[in-house]
Each structure stands twice: as C-alpha cells, then as structure tokens.
Amino acid sequence: MKFVSGLSAAALTALVLSSPAFAQQSTPSSPTPPAQQQPSTQPPNPQDQTAPEAGGPTGDNGSIAIPKKKEKEPEPPPPPEPTVKNPPGLQNFSLRVDVPVVTLDVGVILEKTHQFVPNLKEENFRVYEDGKPQEIASFQQIKAPITAVLLVEFAANSYSFIYDMRNAAYTFAEQLRPDDYVAVMTYDMHTEILTDFTTDKRVVMSSLNQLTIPTWHETNLFDALYQTLDRLSRVEGRKYVVLVSSGRDTFSKITLDKVLQKIKATPNVTIFAIGTGQFARLMTEGRGGMGGQIREMDYLQADNQMTTFARMTGGMAFFPRFAGELPDDFGLINESIRNQYVLTYKPSNNKQDGTYRKLHVELVDNEGHPLKMQDEKHKPVKYDVISRDGYKAKQEVE
To answer: Is residue 309 domain-shared with residue 376, that is, in the same domain?
Structure first.
C-alpha cells in the first residue's frame, strides 16, 4: 500500500494599490517636513513587540506570516522485520509480508490401528508442490489443544439418524480437555449456533441437551458447511470441523462445487466426518425395487461427499454401524488433532496468482528411499500420511 503525503505551501502576494500619496509623488511639489511623533501615553502591547512566529514583517494590520523553510528532517530508520519465535530448540526466523510461507500439518498414523507415529525427523519428510520438491524451512512435532466446531445434522428424519447424532456429539464432548475451545452448530433447513467458542464442557453438554425434537426434514449440508467455513476463516490459528451428518443434502442454495471451492480457499481448517444412519441403511439393504436402489445410491454419494471433505483438508471420515464404535472413532480424531507434525516451507513458485497448488507429502529413509516401518516382531507395518491435498495461493492486489 502506498501512502501519498502532500505539502501545501501558501503563496503570499503583495498588492500595490493606488493612493493619494503615490499620486503626489508624480507631480512636483515642495517637500513637506515630517511630522513629529508624540510619545504614546499607553503602555506598549506585548503582542506588538513579539516577533511573528513565522518570521514575517509587521505592519499596520499586525504581523504577516511567511512560512519558514523547515530543515529536512532525517528519515526514520525502517522498522525491524517481525520475528516469529519458535518453540525452544528451533531457530527463529523472520517473515516478510511479500514472501509467501506455507504451513503444512501432517499426520502419520498406522493403517491398522490408526495410532500416531511419533519421533520422526525432518529428514524423513519430502514435500512436493505441483510435483516439484520443496525445501523445508522449519519442522516440529506438536501436541496442541483443540479449536473446533461441532457441526451436527438435526433434522426430522429417521430416529436412527438422530440417535446416532446424539451419541456421537456426546462422545465428542466427553473427551474434551480443559484447554479445548469448542463451538456447537446444528443444521436442518437452516444453520443455528447453539454455543459459541467455549472451554466449559458443561456449556457444550447443555447445548446438546437442547437437541430433542427436530422441526424440518430438509438437510441443507452444503449451506451449513459453507457458512461454518466462512466463520472459521475469521478465526486465527489451526481450526477443525467435526461434522456429524448423514452426508445427504436436500435443499441447499449452495452447490457442491461451491463448497469444494470454499474448502480450497479456506486455509488451516481440517474436517473430520462421522457418518450417521449406518444401521438404518443396513435395514434397507437387499430390498428390491427401484426405490431401494435409488436410496442406496444416495447414501453412497453422501458417503463419498463426506470422505471428499475430509480428504481435501487432511482429515478422516468414519462410518460406524454401531454406537459402540463411536468412542474409538473419536479417540482417533482426538489423537490425530493433538499429535501432528508441522512443516513450513517457502514455495519455489512464489507467484501470488490465486491458483490452486497441489501438495504431496511422503516419508523417506536416510538414503532417500521410501520409509519402511516394522513392528516389534520385525513384520512390515503399513502407514498413512495425512495432509491437505493442496492450497490456494494468495491473489496479488494491484
């Protein structure tokens, strides 16, 4: 941003007016002796003796101000670059506004147990942007509290869906810790904020107790998720959305494409999805007729949408068939959120053109080969690397 300062200078113009004295000088006449001034009996006015502040002459009508030329003051030194302090053990580094820095949260979990894999080093990570390797600027393993929105579907559908939603919401609330910030939102035809961000678990539980009798049948998932992301874009730091939903959208004004674009344009947000109504779906499976096939296709499409939301943001999607699976699923979500590797890098493509950049993270050993893990019995163990699949570069403002 450019700041333009203007210095306005006052121009003083002296006007020469015609007067009888001036006319007398143009005709010859005898000189007139000057009149003697009588001493004044009034004390002098202190203001008359004071020189004008601007240094101009004094006249019959008072001082005439002439702006003095100010000496050019030395320019102030440039402000120091802001320094971002890293945790102990890591070097501090400076950030400039015109140099983009990408922060990437990476989770490494075992494929079978979904347990977090700790104690990896910076040398084990390779980051690619649009297929090109990037140089990692900083690296750390963190264990942080949660800042999340619990977004639940609360519509007048099958009781099985409502039952699953309540169990999932209560399970999530029970696992909160004192330093976790959580907001609760519901949606049917409209989106409603039950509780703003709070660390009080009792407030969260109290808001969930309000979910008794739903009003509308519509499930406007796209509208609700879009509004949630829009609100979270104004919250600083790392944020999470725990979406408890059937995944079906019935009457949204926002399309799926617009939701996907919003996900790409919203940084530092990870979505975890919990599918509801799986047991009800089991009851309808195997039923003949065109209606049953269409309903089954709707459910498959809904699951794919939930999985896409999670995958794009580096989260996970779960589709429990029984309520007993919920504590384990939310335990994995909590562990994934609280235990992460955080990498930063300066992209080799530093253009601020607003394009979407594809990201890929992989693990390598000391020789640069794909990292292989083994259990205590030296058997190979499969793992998953979870991270965002891309980000939208900033658009340069001219």
So the answer is: no
